[in-house]
Amino acid sequence: MTLTTHASLANHYVNMASSDAVTRATAILARDGLVTFDGVHDRESVVRLAGRLLSPREHRDADGDCVTIISDRGSVAGRLGYAGFGAAELEPHTESSALAQPPRIVMLVCALPADHGGESYVVDGAAVYADLAGHSPRLLQALQQPATVRFGDPGHWGSVLEPTLGGRIRIRLRLDGLEHFTEPAAEAVPLLRTVISKHVQELPLQPGQGYLLDNWRMLHGRRSFHGPRLMYRILGDLLANHDLPLGFKPPNAKAAA
Fold first, then answer.
1. 212 burial level (CB within 10 Å; 0-12, 13-18, 19+)
2. CA of 40: how far to CAs of 8, 20, 210, 251, in Å?
3. Under-50 pLDDT residues of the chain
4. Distance, CA of 221 to CA of 94 (rounded, Å)
5. 10-239+246-256, which class in CATH?
6. Residue 257 CB-density burial (10 A; 0-12 exposed, 13-18 middle, 19+ buried)
Protein backbone atom coordinates (compact mmCIF):
# COMPACT_ATOMS: atom_id res chain seq x y z
CA MET A 1 0.00 0.00 0.00
CA THR A 2 1.41 3.39 -0.97
CA LEU A 3 1.06 6.62 0.92
CA THR A 4 -1.12 8.07 -1.83
CA THR A 5 -3.63 5.21 -1.54
CA HIS A 6 -3.74 5.12 2.25
CA ALA A 7 -7.00 6.92 3.04
CA SER A 8 -5.79 8.85 6.08
CA LEU A 9 -2.61 10.11 4.40
CA ALA A 10 -3.51 11.12 0.85
CA ASN A 11 -4.33 14.72 1.76
CA HIS A 12 -0.86 15.21 3.25
CA TYR A 13 1.13 13.82 0.32
CA VAL A 14 3.66 15.88 -1.66
CA ASN A 15 5.67 14.62 -4.62
CA MET A 16 9.10 15.86 -3.62
CA ALA A 17 10.34 15.54 -7.21
CA SER A 18 7.92 18.24 -8.40
CA SER A 19 9.13 21.76 -9.12
CA ASP A 20 6.83 23.29 -6.49
CA ALA A 21 7.48 20.64 -3.83
CA VAL A 22 8.94 22.99 -1.21
CA THR A 23 6.14 25.53 -1.59
CA ARG A 24 3.46 22.83 -1.39
CA ALA A 25 5.13 21.08 1.56
CA THR A 26 5.33 24.35 3.50
CA ALA A 27 1.67 25.11 2.81
CA ILE A 28 0.49 21.66 3.89
CA LEU A 29 2.65 21.80 7.02
CA ALA A 30 1.02 25.13 7.89
CA ARG A 31 -2.45 23.70 7.25
CA ASP A 32 -2.17 20.20 8.72
CA GLY A 33 1.12 19.96 10.61
CA LEU A 34 2.05 16.89 8.54
CA VAL A 35 3.47 16.11 5.09
CA THR A 36 4.05 12.62 3.70
CA PHE A 37 6.35 11.81 0.80
CA ASP A 38 8.17 9.00 -0.99
CA GLY A 39 11.07 8.43 -3.36
CA VAL A 40 13.85 8.97 -0.78
CA HIS A 41 15.79 5.73 -0.82
CA ASP A 42 19.18 6.37 0.80
CA ARG A 43 20.87 8.48 3.43
CA GLU A 44 22.32 10.92 0.93
CA SER A 45 18.85 11.57 -0.49
CA VAL A 46 17.54 12.19 3.03
CA VAL A 47 20.23 14.80 3.62
CA ARG A 48 19.60 16.46 0.25
CA LEU A 49 15.86 16.68 0.86
CA ALA A 50 16.39 18.11 4.34
CA GLY A 51 18.71 20.71 2.85
CA ARG A 52 15.93 22.02 0.60
CA LEU A 53 13.64 22.65 3.57
CA LEU A 54 15.50 22.78 6.84
CA SER A 55 18.25 24.26 8.85
CA PRO A 56 19.18 21.01 10.64
CA ARG A 57 19.91 20.96 14.35
CA GLU A 58 22.61 18.98 16.03
CA HIS A 59 21.39 16.28 18.40
CA ARG A 60 22.94 14.03 21.01
CA ASP A 61 22.27 10.92 18.92
CA ALA A 62 22.95 12.34 15.44
CA ASP A 63 26.02 11.95 13.27
CA GLY A 64 27.90 14.83 11.67
CA ASP A 65 25.30 15.17 8.91
CA CYS A 66 22.60 15.61 11.61
CA VAL A 67 21.07 12.22 10.73
CA THR A 68 20.07 9.96 13.61
CA ILE A 69 19.75 6.28 12.76
CA ILE A 70 16.76 4.86 14.65
CA SER A 71 17.10 1.12 15.15
CA ASP A 72 16.92 -1.52 17.87
CA ARG A 73 20.15 -1.28 19.86
CA GLY A 74 19.18 -3.80 22.51
CA SER A 75 20.09 -2.86 26.06
CA VAL A 76 20.70 0.79 25.14
CA ALA A 77 16.92 1.27 25.13
CA GLY A 78 16.80 0.53 28.85
CA ARG A 79 18.47 3.83 29.66
CA LEU A 80 16.22 6.79 30.41
CA GLY A 81 15.81 8.92 27.32
CA TYR A 82 16.85 6.16 24.90
CA ALA A 83 13.56 4.29 24.46
CA GLY A 84 13.55 5.01 20.73
CA PHE A 85 16.49 2.64 20.32
CA GLY A 86 14.52 -0.45 21.31
CA ALA A 87 11.71 -2.56 19.87
CA ALA A 88 8.99 -1.67 22.39
CA GLU A 89 6.19 0.75 21.65
CA LEU A 90 7.34 4.36 21.74
CA GLU A 91 4.71 6.53 23.39
CA PRO A 92 3.51 9.68 21.65
CA HIS A 93 5.83 12.59 22.31
CA THR A 94 7.40 15.73 20.92
CA GLU A 95 11.12 15.94 20.20
CA SER A 96 13.60 17.79 22.40
CA SER A 97 10.99 18.71 25.01
CA ALA A 98 13.74 19.62 27.48
CA LEU A 99 14.76 22.62 25.34
CA ALA A 100 13.15 26.01 25.84
CA GLN A 101 12.69 26.21 22.04
CA PRO A 102 12.39 22.70 20.56
CA PRO A 103 13.03 22.24 16.83
CA ARG A 104 10.04 22.97 14.63
CA ILE A 105 10.34 20.04 12.23
CA VAL A 106 10.84 16.29 12.56
CA MET A 107 11.77 14.47 9.35
CA LEU A 108 11.59 10.68 9.42
CA VAL A 109 12.33 8.34 6.50
CA CYS A 110 11.93 4.58 6.39
CA ALA A 111 14.98 2.65 5.20
CA LEU A 112 13.78 -0.77 6.38
CA PRO A 113 10.39 -1.60 7.92
CA ALA A 114 10.10 -4.23 10.64
CA ASP A 115 9.11 -7.82 9.85
CA HIS A 116 6.07 -7.32 12.06
CA GLY A 117 4.71 -4.15 13.69
CA GLY A 118 6.75 -0.97 14.06
CA GLU A 119 4.20 1.28 12.35
CA SER A 120 4.92 4.96 12.84
CA TYR A 121 2.02 7.08 14.00
CA VAL A 122 1.17 10.71 14.64
CA VAL A 123 -1.40 12.55 16.77
CA ASP A 124 -2.61 16.05 15.96
CA GLY A 125 -2.33 18.27 19.03
CA ALA A 126 -5.15 20.42 17.68
CA ALA A 127 -7.49 17.41 17.74
CA VAL A 128 -6.41 16.57 21.30
CA TYR A 129 -7.06 20.15 22.38
CA ALA A 130 -10.49 20.20 20.74
CA ASP A 131 -11.47 16.92 22.38
CA LEU A 132 -10.44 18.14 25.82
CA ALA A 133 -12.16 21.49 25.28
CA GLY A 134 -15.41 19.76 24.37
CA HIS A 135 -15.45 17.19 27.16
CA SER A 136 -13.23 18.31 30.04
CA PRO A 137 -12.41 22.04 29.95
CA ARG A 138 -11.26 21.95 33.59
CA LEU A 139 -8.55 19.42 32.85
CA LEU A 140 -7.66 21.24 29.65
CA GLN A 141 -7.03 24.32 31.76
CA ALA A 142 -4.83 22.26 34.09
CA LEU A 143 -2.66 21.18 31.15
CA GLN A 144 -2.12 24.84 30.26
CA GLN A 145 -0.90 25.96 33.68
CA PRO A 146 2.69 27.22 33.41
CA ALA A 147 5.57 25.48 35.18
CA THR A 148 3.52 22.40 36.10
CA VAL A 149 5.61 19.85 34.19
CA ARG A 150 9.36 19.29 34.13
CA PHE A 151 10.52 17.88 30.80
CA GLY A 152 13.91 16.18 31.07
CA ASP A 153 16.41 16.27 33.92
CA PRO A 154 17.27 19.00 34.82
CA GLY A 155 15.29 19.96 31.73
CA HIS A 156 12.65 22.60 31.16
CA TRP A 157 9.69 23.59 33.33
CA GLY A 158 6.61 24.32 31.24
CA SER A 159 3.18 22.98 30.38
CA VAL A 160 1.77 20.40 27.99
CA LEU A 161 -0.16 23.10 26.13
CA GLU A 162 1.64 26.43 25.93
CA PRO A 163 0.53 29.77 24.43
CA THR A 164 2.67 31.21 21.64
CA LEU A 165 1.83 34.28 19.53
CA GLY A 166 -1.45 35.28 17.93
CA GLY A 167 -3.53 33.16 20.29
CA ARG A 168 -1.92 29.94 19.08
CA ILE A 169 -0.92 26.93 21.18
CA ARG A 170 1.98 24.52 21.01
CA ILE A 171 2.11 21.06 22.51
CA ARG A 172 5.05 19.62 24.45
CA LEU A 173 5.05 16.09 25.86
CA ARG A 174 7.12 13.13 26.90
CA LEU A 175 6.03 10.04 28.83
CA ASP A 176 9.30 8.13 29.07
CA GLY A 177 10.18 8.57 32.75
CA LEU A 178 12.00 11.87 32.19
CA GLU A 179 8.91 13.92 32.93
CA HIS A 180 7.55 15.13 36.25
CA PHE A 181 3.95 16.35 36.49
CA THR A 182 2.82 18.49 39.42
CA GLU A 183 -0.73 19.52 40.29
CA PRO A 184 -2.99 20.45 38.69
CA ALA A 185 -1.50 18.93 35.52
CA ALA A 186 -0.85 15.54 37.15
CA GLU A 187 -4.57 14.96 37.61
CA ALA A 188 -5.14 15.37 33.87
CA VAL A 189 -2.55 12.82 32.68
CA PRO A 190 -4.82 9.71 32.60
CA LEU A 191 -7.44 11.54 30.55
CA LEU A 192 -4.73 13.02 28.33
CA ARG A 193 -3.47 9.52 27.51
CA THR A 194 -7.01 8.36 26.70
CA VAL A 195 -7.71 11.33 24.44
CA ILE A 196 -4.39 10.95 22.62
CA SER A 197 -5.18 7.28 21.90
CA LYS A 198 -8.42 8.34 20.18
CA HIS A 199 -6.61 10.50 17.62
CA VAL A 200 -3.78 8.23 16.45
CA GLN A 201 -3.12 8.16 12.69
CA GLU A 202 -0.90 5.28 11.64
CA LEU A 203 1.67 5.77 8.89
CA PRO A 204 2.58 2.35 7.46
CA LEU A 205 5.87 3.54 5.97
CA GLN A 206 7.68 1.42 3.41
CA PRO A 207 11.27 1.92 2.16
CA GLY A 208 11.76 5.38 0.73
CA GLN A 209 8.62 6.80 2.35
CA GLY A 210 8.61 9.34 5.14
CA TYR A 211 7.04 12.33 6.80
CA LEU A 212 7.69 15.87 7.90
CA LEU A 213 5.79 17.06 10.94
CA ASP A 214 5.40 20.25 12.92
CA ASN A 215 6.97 19.38 16.27
CA TRP A 216 5.03 22.21 17.94
CA ARG A 217 1.69 20.74 16.85
CA MET A 218 2.04 16.99 16.30
CA LEU A 219 2.95 14.12 18.61
CA HIS A 220 4.59 11.05 17.12
CA GLY A 221 5.42 7.51 18.18
CA ARG A 222 5.57 3.93 16.91
CA ARG A 223 4.18 0.48 17.58
CA SER A 224 6.28 -2.33 19.07
CA PHE A 225 7.95 -4.55 16.50
CA HIS A 226 9.86 -7.72 15.72
CA GLY A 227 12.77 -8.04 13.33
CA PRO A 228 15.15 -5.38 12.02
CA ARG A 229 13.80 -1.85 11.51
CA LEU A 230 15.79 1.18 10.41
CA MET A 231 14.72 4.82 10.12
CA TYR A 232 16.58 8.04 9.36
CA ARG A 233 15.64 11.12 11.39
CA ILE A 234 16.63 14.76 11.06
CA LEU A 235 15.46 17.55 13.39
CA GLY A 236 15.53 21.18 12.34
CA ASP A 237 13.79 24.45 11.62
CA LEU A 238 12.32 25.62 8.34
CA LEU A 239 14.65 27.81 6.32
CA ALA A 240 14.11 31.51 6.93
CA ASN A 241 12.23 32.08 3.66
CA HIS A 242 9.49 29.60 4.65
CA ASP A 243 6.87 30.60 7.21
CA LEU A 244 5.10 28.25 9.59
CA PRO A 245 2.47 29.24 12.20
CA LEU A 246 3.68 29.04 15.80
CA GLY A 247 1.61 26.02 16.78
CA PHE A 248 -2.10 25.52 16.17
CA LYS A 249 -5.07 27.82 16.52
CA PRO A 250 -7.40 26.45 19.23
CA PRO A 251 -10.65 25.18 17.69
CA ASN A 252 -13.84 26.17 19.47
CA ALA A 253 -15.24 23.69 21.96
CA LYS A 254 -18.65 23.47 20.27
CA ALA A 255 -17.10 22.20 17.03
CA ALA A 256 -15.10 19.62 18.98
CA ALA A 257 -18.02 18.11 20.89
1. buried
2. 21, 17, 8, 35
3. 1, 4-5, 253-257
4. 9
5. alpha beta
6. exposed
